[in-house]
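Data deposition worksheet. Section B asks for the primary sequence of the deposited chain exactly as it was used as input, without tags or linkers unless they were present during the calculation. Section C holds the resulting structure in token form. Section D is free text for depositor observations; keep each observation to a single sentence. Incomplete worksheets are returned to the depositor.
Section A, Depositor: J.P.
Section B:
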Amino acid sequence: MSLAPRAVLVHRRTEYEELLTRHGTHGQAAFFLSSRGRSIDEVVRRHDRTQQALREVAAAVPLTWRSSRVERADLDRFLFAPQDVVVVVGQDGLVANTAKYLGGQPVVGIDTDPGRNPGVLVRHRCADTAALLRAATAGGGRTEELTMVEAVADDTQRLLALNEIYLGPPGHQTARYRLGPDGESDPGEAQASSGVLVGTGTGATGWLRSLWLERGSTAELPAPCEARLLWFVREAWPSPATGTTRVAGELGRGQGLRLTVESDRVVVFGDGMEADALELTWGQSVRLGIAETSLRLVA
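Section C:
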């Protein structure tokens, strides 16, 4: 007998919950904000809207389904199953945070604060949840396959990201490495910089776009479902031992960018989740390219 589908509700702590964790009580949190010219009232209202959204979404899960909840901070310890339908209740960034832990499960994005969130990935309202869950499990339900980027280290460590992957120093130091196309005999160009960013079409509305604008790049930004990545080196430093001729480019399906570490420590993390990063050291290499896995976003 096959198991019934499981709806996994993904959420994150609200600003109000974080304030209570830090200050202990509502009154202490209110005093802290008021001393900085802010009122706690709007923070509480946003918290209440989020909690109400979670209740409405949970109530929309069919009675014959199983259900579970996971908070953003616990995603790296949560075991998603192939038959899950993932319901992200929150902001666009929470979808990206969740994507790296999935393996093709359909994702429904529910916007808890319409008008405040851009709604690029959380496109739906709470009232749509029941219909979206049915569509996610029905054959022929409309989904978009959003391209993801992956980093694979020479020790088999692997990292996925929906928006972008950053490789660089863990602090404000300079990373030293060699950078070049994967699969060629060319050892790559020795570089010193504040890091390398490899981004997707979904990430083209964020960090990748800011670098693209800063450089005045003539490359066309990829679309979210397009099998193409752009990459940029941040603040490459020219010196007698390091060059700056390979500071931007694009990658198609099957193409890769290889970085070989020539400093004590380089971190690799995706979509801003630095706490869940790969750590590489002298002599290790990592390949960046389009991931075979994509995010199935229920449209």
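Section D:
DSSP finds six helices and 18 strands in the chain.
The mean pLDDT is 94.
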